[in-house]
Fold this sequence. Notes:
By secondary structure, this protein is α+β, with helices and mostly antiparallel strands. It has four domains: 1-203 and 395-420, Nucleotidyltransferase, domain 5 (2-Layer Sandwich), CATH 3.30.420.380; 206-260 and 280-376, Nucleotidyltransferase, domain 5; 447-533; 536-658, Elongation Factor Tu (Ef-tu), domain 3. The protein has 16 helices and 20 strands. The strands form five sheets. A five-stranded mixed β-sheet has the order 3-2-1-4-8, sandwiched between helices. Strands 11-10-9-12-13 form a five-stranded mixed β-sheet, with helices on both faces. The protein has a four-stranded antiparallel β-sheet with strand order 14-18-20-19. Helix 7 (241-259) crosses helix 9 and helix 13 (422-489) packs across helix 15 (522-533). It is rod-shaped and about 160 Å long.
Amino acid sequence: MKKEKKQATEKLLGGIRNRKTASVPLATQNAKIKAGKKQIKIGIEITGNLVRLSALLHSDQYRLLSYQQVTLPRTTERQSLGEALTPVLRKFCKPFSKRKLWFMMPSRDVDAFTYEIPQVEAKKIDSVALQAAQKEKKFNIGTQLFDYHIIDATESKYRVLAYTIPKQEILEWKGFFRKIGYPLEGITINTFCLQNMFQSGWLDAPKEDSVAHIFIDDDWSRIDVFQQHFLVFTREVRTSLNSLLDEIQNSFQKETDSATPQIEIPGQPSLSGQNLNDKNQTITLREAKSILQAQLIEGENLAPGQPGADLTSDDVFKMIEPALNRLSRQIQRTIAHYNNTMAQHSINKLFISGVMSLYPPLLSYLQGELGIPVEAADPFRFISQYSKIRPPAATRQKMQLLPVISLGLSQNPQTPNFLYTFREKNEERKLAQIKKWVIAAGFSAVLLLAAGNIATFTFLATEKTKLKTLENEFETLATNAKALEQQLNSIDPNTDLSHIRKLAEKINFLNKYLEYTAKRYEPISVFSELFTLTPEGISINKVLYSSSQKQFTLTYKDTGKTVDKKEKEEHFSSPFGYYELQNSNSEQATAKQDCAKFILLDGVVTTKEQDKNLYLSVYKMILNNSPYFSVLGIEKNSQITPGIGNTLYFTIALKVTI
């Protein structure tokens, strides 16, 4: 029973995450040849005055099409930045017609945290997650943008990863890119971009494993934990690149202090820490950075005479080892906390990104301290040497492109998007549901109209057959009458009167029979004429034909009020009014117009022609030119019908003139 419940929970969790991403290998492609017909994701990263761009093709495989790094003039104004960035984007995006742009904003203002909520029905999860987040972290929902996703589920609870970010910053970046003519599909941060690398298979991590990642920046470092390729935990630590540089500076200061002699002069204070050779061995932060870069980047050797030029790799490692030891302990505590509180599977690999991933001694040191494999996150590791898309020659630049390349893998709803939060997802689901309802309603309306048309055409076809039979009878009677007339003409005037009376009575009987037959089949004749004159683009829904034995007057009502059938003899309603037929007084019904016959047609213009009003006017002229009908009036109304679109309904009043 527990197993079944667990499977149901996992199924619900998968549905909430709504992820369909499959792991596919990287394949490169010439953007100018094939990319124009595919959807392209353009990644944009702005760091200081550096702009990094990437273009990736999203199809059956992810393909890196292009990348670029551009240095812009330094500026703090958005307007100047836009003027400098616009030509860069125009040139980079020109080969890619079907493209979507994603921007990576700084992550320092994003507050990400995890918490638990009780399992509730799907429609209540959003409100429960928001209320629990506001208890966990005090924030103003009016000024802070909030979003979340489910990262884990137990039998009774969901574990949620949520984040908040100032709305104003999102609106400013969104407006900035729209103003320069490149509207964004998404805005996200570095951490969520790395999640794309795991989901796409570009970083080697089995889905069932939990992995950690550390990004070492100038002033801070960030440790992330991914479970089933989704971010489940993140925290910042103070140990950073500047911590390593401080250790190098401190090492030089200690050497200077230990090498300085103590001098005592009678009557003078003791001079301690003074360099007799007038050489200041204390180095600047820039010089310490040069020493570290010489170890990280192949080919960047220090010139003779520069501070640290005579240092070996082991010497530099011993200088920064205290800072590395602090970093290792912080990673160990993070892994232990995750394994003890959140993990379904223990963390079994660590990825390093940033410039420090180029330092092999760091990878070896952390692997020895943590007891798990440590690997550099290389975005170009899957690119073939025969590809037209080559990695940059500089190793440091290659590693710096990791965030923007992973940004190009972004897609909704897998990648957390500050422009596509749970609110937009809900609106999209509602619109999709409404669309389904409209399609279903439209399909039902089409079926009803089709059924009505089939019934109408079947009835008219039957009546047309009867009319054909009637015409044959008329021809027979006319032939008989002609034969009698010939007999009369051939009668001798001297024939006796009794024989003439018999012939006259027979002719009179035939004439009355002809008149009776004509009146009896008059409706069939009228319907046949109507059927013949009505084109395919006109659909008749209802027909009201007056009884020839009733005397009535015709009045059009435009009030739109419902008519009580008990009060009125007959009436015919339409979407915009109705015609009313009332019995006239026998004393007042002596006039010919009071005994006239009328037809009311209620229908719809179904033609695909653009001008439906013109089509209806032509139909009116056709009816008016018929010897059977005289058009008394026409009413029409244009409406929007679900599933059909703009529809022209009409009601035509006809006077039968035969």
